[in-house]
Amino acid sequence: MPYPTLVACRHCDALFRRPRLLPGGQTACCSRCGSTLYRESAAQLDSLCAITVAALVTFIIAQAFPIIELDANGITSESSLIGALAVLWSQGMYAVASLVFCATVLFPLVEIVALLYLLLPIRRGIVPPGFRHVMHVIGFVRPWGMLEVFMVGILVAIVKLVSISRVMPQTALFAFAALTLMLTVVAMFDFRRLWEIADSLRAPLIGGDNDPGHYAPKLRSTRDSSAEGADGVAGHVTAKDAGLACCHVCGQLESRQLLARTPRKSHKQHKPRCTRCHAPMHLRRPDSLRRTWAFLSAAAILYIPANVLPIMNTATLAHDRGDTILSGIVHFWLTGEWLIASIVFIASIMVPMLKISALALLALTSQRRSRWRTAERTTLYRVVEVIGRWSMLDIFVIALTVALVRFGTFGTVTAGPGAIAFGAVVILTMLASMQFDPRLIWDPVSRAAPVAEEPSQYTMEHPHD
């Protein structure tokens, strides 16, 4: 049985009663760990659909035209994003080319097209065929689309190339800037709302008197600090304690007892699935810590060659040298580009190292079932989720530089083996953060509170009081 009037925090598993209406533009936050539960976007479906259509047109323009043009003593060179990918592929850097292609072309395009496939019929009151499959695709590709990081990479590449040639911006540069703004607006929309809209178009779901939402604390809005919530960390009811399992895809809560009665299939235990999106359901991510440690170990090993091996090779009439990430940062610093040097240092050196260290701390403390600073550790995990993708900055700078600096015998830039190792570090750390289940941070605290199978055994605020 689903419980549409309830929402569980995906970071600490705290259970809340969801109000029927949250004013547009407001955000509901967990009063236990501070994570965002859901938000009501001020943008209507018509506006969202219009922005998505504009984003698709802008995306095509950004891919079809050159980004920037170089002029070095009468020798010109220009390249589009597709041209940069072709150059990387021709140099045998298949892994780097594939990584850049997926992050800047394939995944953003799939997300835009999938959104249009859903939004156009839904705004007319029709649920399109294959709705849940398309929503699963959006959920998969969204973390890997990195156009905003690529836009910053373009700016860093321009600053880097100004010292060797005259740089002239082209059509695609402005298209990428506009596309980044459009996708930022689209990303502000909580796409779990589409599940609820689809449910309302199919059949309205109304919680009855037996809905455990009657016994969950009120949500706290970021704009309403006077709203009440449960006091004390141990006083919160979690979905697990209430006998509910939360779907990690659509956020729907299901009865754990109902899932336990799932029939066997072909003499093997059939995985319980969400009744709304059909995704496999589990109380906690299976083998979360083991997989996190595996990805972290691989990332830590590759972090050394990523910084030691040359990430880019420059060949001119005067010299032929290989540049590591650190040597590139030193070059920016010595030429007076202190801001760019700081950005590259933070994104390429500090962020991967801090992300590996932070995830190792989270995995170790969760494995030891520590109750030390649970709220702060959850905040640390949210920071890791946000900043991890920005380490791709150096890979995008390399792709553009390799494609543009091709002046024959006068100068050529090629990608080095360090680029492959660095790209692998970024992917592995992102996979590690995705595999880690932050609810493990709060499980030792939750068990300190009285645990009951029925949520009615908790003394919580009743909605009719």
Features:
465 residues, mainly alpha, 3-stranded antiparallel sheet, 50% helix, 11% strand, disordered C terminus
Q: How do the helices and strands line up, and which of them pair or pack?
A:
Elements: E1 6-8, E2 15-17, E3 27-29, E4 36-39, H1 45-64, E5 68-72, E6 75-79, H2 81-90, H3 94-122, H4 131-141, H5 147-161, E7 166-169, H6 171-187, H7 192-202, E8 220-221, E9 244-246, E10 253-255, H8 256-260, H9 288-308, E11 312-316, E12 320-323, H10 325-334, H11 338-367, H12 374-387, H13 393-404, E13 411-415, H14 417-435, H15 439-446
Antiparallel strand pairs: 1-2, 3-4, 3-8, 5-6, 5-7, 9-10, 11-12, 11-13
Helix pairs in contact: 1-3, 1-6, 2-3, 2-13, 3-4, 5-6, 5-13, 9-11, 9-14, 10-11, 11-12, 11-14
3D architecture notes:
- The strands form five sheets. Strands 4-3-8 form a three-stranded antiparallel sheet, with no helix packed on it.
- Strand 9 (244-246) and strand 10 form a beta hairpin.
- The protein has a domain at 45-189 and 287-439.
- It contains 15 helices and 13 strands.
- Helix 1 (45-64) runs antiparallel to helix 6 (171-187), helix 2 (81-90) packs across helix 13 and helix 5 (147-161) runs antiparallel to helix 6 (171-187).
- It is mostly helical.
- Residues 205-234, 262-268 and 448-465 have low confidence and may be disordered.
- It has helices at residues 45-64, 81-90, 94-122, 131-141, 147-161, 171-187, 192-202, 256-260, 288-308, 325-334, 338-367, 374-387, 393-404, 417-435, 439-446; strands at residues 6-8, 15-17, 27-29, 36-39, 68-72, 75-79, 166-169, 220-221, 244-246, 253-255, 312-316, 320-323, 411-415.
- The radius of gyration is 25 Å and the shape is globular.
